[in-house]
Amino acid sequence: MEQHRSAAAGYRTFFEAKRKQYDLLERMLPSVSQMNVRIDQGIRLADFIEELAEYMRDARQQTAEAHVSLYGRLRVIRDYHKRLPLPESRSEFEHRANLFTVANELERLFNTI
């Protein structure tokens, strides 16, 4: 009986994490769909999203080292964005703000993996 409760708690935790991931992805969809991948920041973030998708799709890749490496790559991208000069136009500002929002949501997503 104790094993049954333990297994049920494990499944509940697993599905709660999956629900959080789904909610985050759903919240990210409008921002991701507006990403401009013609600017360097957009290209970097798009490449990262593709890597993250592959990581999440293949359970064999989900090692602690891979997780730390991907998270480190996200931090490098975010640090790069912080060092850029200020936007020169409203359009550039809006694109970069959108990318910043996506990066924030990706970081939240990492906390659920």
From TrEMBL:
The protein's name is Putative aromatic acid exporter C-terminal domain-containing protein
Superkingdom:
Bacteria
Annotated coiled-coil segments of the chain? none
Q: Which PANTHER family match?
A: MEMBRANE PROTEIN, MEMBRANE PROTEIN-RELATED
Identify the species of origin. Answer: Paenibacillus spongiae
Q: Where is the Putative aromatic acid exporter C-terminal domain?
A: 9-110
Question: Which InterPro entries does the entry mention?
Answer: ArAE_1_C (IPR021062), ArAE_1_C_sf (IPR038323), UPF0421 (IPR052984)
